[in-house]
Amino acid sequence: MKRFSLLFGMPCLFLIGSLVSANQSDEYITMPTRDDLNEIVLKAYECSSTNKAKSCGELRNLADPLMDNPLPSAVCKDLVWELLQSAKTSKINSLERRDSIDIPARKISNACLKKTKAINSPRGNQPRIKT
Predict the structure, then answer these.
(1) Whole-angstrom distance, CA of residue 109 vs CA of residue 121
(2) CA 56 to CA 46: how far, in whole Å?
(3) Of 14, 17, 74, 86, whose CA is between 20 and 30 Å from 119?
(4) What is the dihedral sign for C-alpha 53, 44, 61, 88?
(5) What is the percentage of the chain residues whose pLDDT exceeds 90?
(6) Which residues are CB-neighbours of 22 under 8 A, at least 6 positions away?
(7) Is 124 helix (H, G, I), strand (E, B) or coil?
(8) Contact present, 40 and 100 (Cβ < 8 Å)
(9) Spatial separation of the C-alpha atoms in residues 17 and 11, rounded to whole Å
């Protein structure tokens, strides 16, 4: 029995050691900044208005890393997915095509920012002033 536990324990230690070393080499993942999101929004507006392959390709290149980032919310990723699917050139730059790019672009800056809670909410926590 003792021999079995020694044989079983060695591969487990090797596996745990390799996982720890793999995590140490990973880069630090952060939430997208407001500037990053504003750049995506501006490229989305450019893609929808010009209907050029270059501007739509730049938009897809900027927005695609958000899909691989584990930190943004599902709502953010849904909007990015919608943007990636509609950011393609078309023969006719119709209003429907432009709206399919512009509407998610407008929503993306609010949905993809990290939400912070206020520590001291102004409602109900303030002492009343006697007059």
Answers:
(1) 24
(2) 8
(3) 74
(4) negative
(5) 56
(6) none
(7) coil
(8) no
(9) 10
